[in-house]
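User: Just a sanity check before I run the rest of the batch. Below are the structure tokens for the first item. I only need the designed sequence back.
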């Protein structure tokens, strides 16, 4: 067990991850498997721990953004198939092959630049088709033909899959989603005519898999929903799937004081007391990723909402208490306390962003405690 010395921590409910995997698994056709996406350190939840739980719960593959992320999972002893979504320099192809990491490819020049010579293990690749996302991927059949010509000359590189990514699967208007579906379908037909060997096809992200499970291919890529967060308010409102938020954030009061009318709090003296007030200090700040823009939101103390007052500092945040509380009293910044709840969506709406960003912004200074309901497993 890792020893933690600070009074701020995040709790990751592995039972919630288990529930979320099993919820989507029930909706999928028998031929469709789950690729759990654990990039960005598992969206801030912890890649290794979430990956292990997702695989135990029914996922059969993992997705990451970086070669380093895939290597970290291998170093942790995880042996499931791992796909790297991001562009990896071709010089590192042999490293990916050595550790059985599948790379994403969409450039003829990339294939030509992979070091020559025999690998101890073949390099597996998935082709990426840009059906409209506009980030990375092939866009023309000419590019596909050029890549296939190179592939036929590369005995140490194996094509094992192809995929695309939807830009608007979480929106009410599905016009562009259907356009992307049609473009990808044409690409797959063309690809299969050029490459008769069996390959894995996948296109559905969390939103598409929740809304259209019957349209799933060999895999779905289960990302944000794995962590109990809906891809959009529309998906949350309209779809019949129960997701459980896995991440909560907590701290404890380290100082409580009474201030008088006219007293101010924190840098810039932006908060001035109009009457006698109780102020609590908690040890979390923008150095932990608890951004200064959250000034004005509330945290939970004894189930009551207490607003953040004054500027959030690098290591500390001040809150307006309704009464004096004992040093060490638990404060919940994200999650449930008694009958009150602060969700990722609440904070995302306040910040004008998406719920994806909230757990990702809480950095490694905040320890993650892994739990199964009441039983700690870290």
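Assistant: Here's the designed sequence for the first item:
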């Amino acid at each position: 067990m890792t020893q933690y010395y600070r009074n701020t921590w995040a709790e990751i409910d592995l039972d919630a991850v288990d529930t979320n995997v099993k919820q989507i698994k029930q909706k999928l056709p028998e031929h469709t498997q789950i690729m759990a996406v654990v990039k960005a350190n598992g969206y801030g939840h912890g890649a290794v721990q979430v990956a292990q739980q997702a695989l135990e719960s029914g996922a059969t593959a993992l997705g990451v953004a970086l070669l380093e992320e895939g290597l970290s999972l291998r170093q942790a002893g995880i042996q499931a198939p791992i796909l790297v979504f991001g562009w990896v320099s071709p010089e590192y192809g042999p490293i990916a092959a050595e550790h059985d990491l599948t790379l994403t490819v969409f450039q003829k020049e990339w294939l030509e630049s992979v070091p020559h010579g025999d690998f101890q293990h073949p390099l597996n690749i998935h082709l990426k088709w840009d059906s409209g996302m506009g980030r990375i991927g092939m866009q023309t059949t000419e590019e596909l033909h050029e890549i296939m010509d190179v592939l036929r000359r590369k005995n140490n590189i194996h094509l094992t899959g192809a995929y695309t990514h939807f830009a608007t699967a979480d929106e009410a208007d599905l016009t562009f989603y259907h356009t992307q579906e049609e473009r990808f379908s044409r690409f797959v037909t063309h690809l299969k005519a050029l490459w008769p060997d069996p390959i894995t096809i996948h296109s559905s992200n969390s939103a598409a898999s929740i809304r259209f499970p019957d349209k799933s291919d060999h895999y779905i890529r289960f990302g944000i929903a794995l962590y109990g967060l809906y891809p959009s308010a529309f998906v949350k409102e309209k779809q019949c799937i129960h997701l459980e938020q896995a991440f909560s954030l907590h701290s404890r009061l380290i100082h409580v004081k009474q201030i008088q009318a006219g007293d101010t709090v924190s840098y810039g003296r932006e908060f001035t007391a109009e009457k006698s007030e109780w102020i609590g200090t908690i040890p979390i700040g923008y150095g932990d990723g608890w951004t200064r823009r959250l000034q004005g939101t509330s945290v939970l103390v004894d189930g009551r909402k207490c607003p953040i007052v004054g500027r959030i500092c690098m290591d500390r945040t001040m809150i307006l208490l309704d009464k004096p509380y004992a040093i060490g009293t638990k404060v919940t910044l994200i999650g449930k306390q008694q009958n009150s709840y602060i969700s990722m969506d609440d904070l995302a709406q306040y910040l004008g962003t998406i719920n994806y960003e909230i757990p990702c912004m809480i950095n490694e200074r905040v320890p993650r405690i892994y739990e199964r309901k009441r039983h700690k497993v870290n």
